[in-house]
Amino acid sequence: MKQLINQSLKTALLIIKLVIPFYLLADILIYFGILQKISFIFEPITSIMGLSPEVSLSIAAGVLFNLYAAIAFAAPLGLTPYEWTILGLFLGIAHALPVENSIMKKLGMPHWYSTLLRIGVGIVAVIVFRALPIHIEGKTLQKEISLPHYDSFWDMLGNSLYNASVLAVKIIILITIIIIVMHFIKEKLFKNKNLSAPFSIITGIILGITYGAGILIAEKNRLSKKELLFVGTFLMIAHSLIEDPLLFVLFGANFWLLVSIRVILAVIFSYLVVKFYPFKHKTQNF
């Protein structure tokens, strides 16, 4: 129980450190018109995804840091549930690349492969989602985001601090509940299980890429290169399918679409990679 409390407190502190400063920074950039001036640089990427250029900093923060930073940048933009689903799909696959790609490197998967796979499949996921004949609020995307306006800098700062704090509290409550549930799963369901490739997939899907890859790292000498490549590729596309989607559900994103599209693409791409990759070498590195 003490370990559980400590983990919850550490996570809450991390969320506060990330969400509030990045949320304030986003509002400051909007207030002074800086975001509007630099966002055009990323327009080719955001246009492919069907998002306004202003979302680019959220994407950059998510890819380089984590989902909390990405959400903090996106929250002040007033995105629709449809746009949050798009953002959740892409960033659910392609987030925290420097850290998580380093973990996959220990399984013999180079950074270039992990980066191209996750960004490429993230874009494919968005294209697939946009092609689906479904109705979600805000599907008819606006050409321009309705950015917030304030009477003065101090008015903006006060409102931003309040909104950032409310968002941080919501995320902390959600993550605390998830931590408790995950603790139960790890202690009651996964305890004393035999380590294997299928088990690492299940673990990664529920608990995240770090846990799933950790099992593979521990067992990599007992697994073939083909098994490592399949499971590693699968986990990079479909991992943490409870916590990550729920962060975007807070803003109206569709949970089932976020999960189902990633799982289906994970199966397809893992199969294709293993089928067409020439396994000619005995080493576990590419």
Automatic annotation (TrEMBL):
Keywords: Membrane, Transmembrane, Transmembrane helix. It comes from the Bacteria. The chain crosses the membrane at residues 12-35, 55-75, 82-99, 111-132, 161-185, 197-216, 228-249, 255-274. This is Nucleoside recognition protein.
